[in-house]
Amino acid sequence: MIVFDHVSKTYPDGTMAVEDLSFTAPNGKITVLVGPSGCGKTTSMRMINRLIDPTSGTITLDGQPTAGIDKVELRRKIGYVIQNAGLFPHRTVVDNVAALPRLLGERKQDARDRARQLLNLVGLDESFARKYPWQLSGGQQQRVGVARALATDPPFLLMDEPFSAVDPIVRAQLQDEFLKLQETIGKTIVMVTHDIDEALILGDQIAVLRQGGRLAQIASPEELLRAPADRFVADFVGTSRGYRSLGFIHADEQLTVRHTPAAPLGSSAAALPPGSDGWLVAVDEQARPLGWIHRERIGEVVTAEAVDHAGSIAAEDAPLRDLLDAALSSPSGDGIVAGADGGYLGTVGTSDIVAAIQRSKRGRARPADEEAGDRA
Ligand SMILES: Nc1ncnc2c1ncn2[C@@H]1O[C@H](COP(=O)(O)OP(=O)(O)OP(=O)(O)O)[C@@H](O)[C@H]1O
């Protein structure tokens, strides 16, 4: 657990970068610091590993004030991932990852063996180990940066805009992989980003800072979207908050899944049922949904060319946002749902999804009502 207790930082030129900042980054969770440029995110994060010393206040790691921990020991406990990976250009990938353990006295072979395991963990196979950073793509370099930060198996990890130097598609992939990795490693992470969408995807909790390093709100992604503390947070989180918050809510068991008939590729048109307003769900040989198909577009047999791909397909356990999107993008008006194995399950209607949204809103409102009842 990392605790900020009334921490302030004034630079020698008088700039108040952080003012009276207090928050807790819980163990095994990702805490994201976001806010506009110059609001003190980087200063706050660098005070944790004492690259910058606070002017006042204390920061503790699992109850131990950082001011009292030897800097070498502190850096061993806290992995650090920076933008652009910051790799040593003249060292191979494996030696980049092994660098800090070597510096701390580990045997070369042991450090390299572990480095190879870590490279594997971040999705880089053996062939990358002997390459140099300039031979890697931006996304691959960033993975090496993550592997290097994990080299001393630190319980804490600081990440400064770790995925911002790569294009949006690679960034989305790295974010996804990183969340899976965190499920395995369970580190206590503080991450800085200026990108609210990245914060909403990665954060277990998000601390929104305003100019002068003052905390505007700290909350879960869902709460930040649902109940921004003030206008500044609402504007920073951005528009379509209601729709985006559906990305964190799942359907309940009451959601009606309709049994719209399937039209397997290659099947004869004569053998097919009428469908819903003529619409059927085209499925492949493994009964996986491909998209919608209208009876009028089917000749003698169902062909892949006749499938309409406009509608997105939602997974059974997907958040309501994905189900709603599947329905809204669908030519038939209903959304296609696939099971965990990718097989076709059924379809959901827009009105049924809206009813599920309303039930979830009532469900979330209830605890507060009950609290009010308890107080009365
Ligand atoms: N060494 C320094 N000396 C004086 N002022 C500084 C120093 N480093 C940062 N600042 C100032 O402190 C404030 C906070 O800077 P910081 O880098 O922490 O912000 P940030 O939120 O990380 O910004 P960005 O998103 O642009 O990276 C800014 O006004 C900045 O100009």
In which range does the helix fraction lie?
Answer: 25-40%
Element-by-element helix/strand order: EEEHEEHEHHHEHEHEEHHHEEEEHEEH
Spatial order of strands in the largest sheet = 6-7-8-3-9-10
Q: Quickly give the CATH architecture of the largest domain.
A: 3-Layer(aba) Sandwich
The low-pLDDT segments are: 368-376
How many separate structural domains? 2
- Terminal Cα separation, in Å? 36 Å
- Say which CATH homologous superfamily of the largest domain is assigned: P-loop containing nucleotide triphosphate hydrolases
CATH third-tier fold name of the largest domain: Rossmann fold
Which CATH first-tier class of the largest domain would you pick? Answer: Alpha Beta
Oligomer designation: single chain
Shape field: globular
Structural class: alpha/beta
Q: What's the main sheet like?
A: 6 strands, mixed
* Nearest-integer average pLDDT: 90
